[in-house]
Fold these 2 entries.
Entry 1:
Amino acid sequence: MKVGLQIPDFSTPRGPEWLGRELANVARTADDAGFEYIAVMDHFFQIAALGPADKEMLEGYTTLAYLAACTRHAALVTLVTGAFYREPGILGKIVTTLDVLSGGRAWLGIGAGWNEEESRGLGVRFPPVSERVERLEETLQICLQMWRGDEEAYLGKHYSLERPLNSPQSLSRPHPPIMIGGGGEKKTLRLVAQYADACNLFAGRDETRKLDVLRQHCEAVGRDYDTIYKTVYYYFDPSKGAQRIVDELGALAEAGFDAAIGAVAGVWDVRPLELIGADVIPVVADF
């Protein structure tokens, strides 16, 4: 079982003027402690579950580029990008750029998107859910075509690209790993089976049954279920004690998950990251 850090809240104790330094300290500590992934949300407003919309929020890919320079080992991923936030050709170029500059550590974390408030607030058209899923699939097709080096025109229902040129190419070959987030059983998990290298589900939301649904989609499209890397969103609360975290991660590993990625309580203090690095990551590595 691998462990990853997600940073969903940028309201640091000393305010925005210290944010760059404190964020770098968090990322370096996590990297040195053995966290396999460092992730940020791809939101422009803070989400309601974590606070009011006007709480501090950084743009995801700018943040990951900064963290690439602060770290050496951890993979860098949004958990996850809303497919309709950026034109697919631009998104492919962004992730490729991150991959090249980080030495091959970028992932494409992507989903259909959901936050209507921030979309309307910043003037981004918010399509109906069926269209968002269609755009997600076309975005996946376009990014994969770009990473293959195929410059033929792409003509889809929602997107048309005359020449999807991508130079330089990603260092990750055949392409940066694709993680699709979301548990929609009819459409999202089908896209995982068809296009993705990894999925991301939420712990406590019927996640084991959703893995069974994913297995069924794999059978339907002729995909080996075991080739999909299964990740789960898990909130790391060191106040529980290291052993309880180990036990809970063990249960998730037993259910079929390969990695747990999530926020860490008290992360700006960094000592919780050091505790997880010392007392959790080495133990769960054997799961």
Entry 2:
Amino acid sequence: MSITTLEEFYEQIAVNAPDALGYLLPDGITREIGHFNVFRMADIQPVRRKGIMPYNRRAYYKISLIRGRNRAEYADKVIDIEESGLLFATPKVPYHYYPLDEDQSGYFCIFTEEFLHHSKTGIQLDELPLFRAGGYPVFQLSPGDTAELDNLFQRIHKELSSDYAYKYDLLRNYVLELIHYGQKLQPATARYPAHNAGARVSSLFVELLERQFPIESPRQRLYLRTAKDYADRLAIHVNHLNKVLKENTGKTTTRLISGRIVKEAKILLRQTDWNISEIAYTLGFEEVAHFSNFFKKQTALSPAAFRN
């Protein structure tokens, strides 16, 4: 997973679509973007229609205040938002999100885990039920909750555009307030439709698998290697994952994972000058010999023979 700072991300946007920055950045924002930003949904709709995403969801945590009917689909549950809701997203848990009507509004903020490290609270995001696989990341809101959170997001949006010297300390406090607000809410009711659950699990497995690629640096490393790794991240039992993938793809979980690793290994062997030990490391192998045996079993060639 290629991790960039938000500043680097916006620099890429500026190169590829300079006109888009007017939509993406709040008025008066400085170039000190760091690891945090906030958006009004109405402001980014024109950009999304152009096919541009204002953030990379593989890299950032996200908290959204959503007005409108929506649906969030996870491997183990489907959650409907009828009028307004609060959604917490982590780069480590895949989900699908569908607006159910055209009347959509609200705010969302994105940040990295490092952004909160400066708060000195010791908070570990992935240990919270809001961000943990299998937890409750979506909450229905009452009109009172919606008004209160709307006011908080307005303050966040205003503060980010200010020239206050300690605004990022204040913004961290606002993010923590959002997190604690979510933890006090009752979870939204989850539905479990049996007719499409298998297809949903398969789709989210593929998304989670593909999130790890491409490998772009010898320092980057594959962090999900086994069927159990994926089952844990999707909050389902490994036997259920194996059964669903076999029924929907005709292949075992291990075969699907191995096939994608081999595909990436071939790309790295042919298109980079990294040595084989570096490639083995990035793909999660502790020993070069283990990688060589794996690659030869899958392709009938050693990595060196394939490269040559």
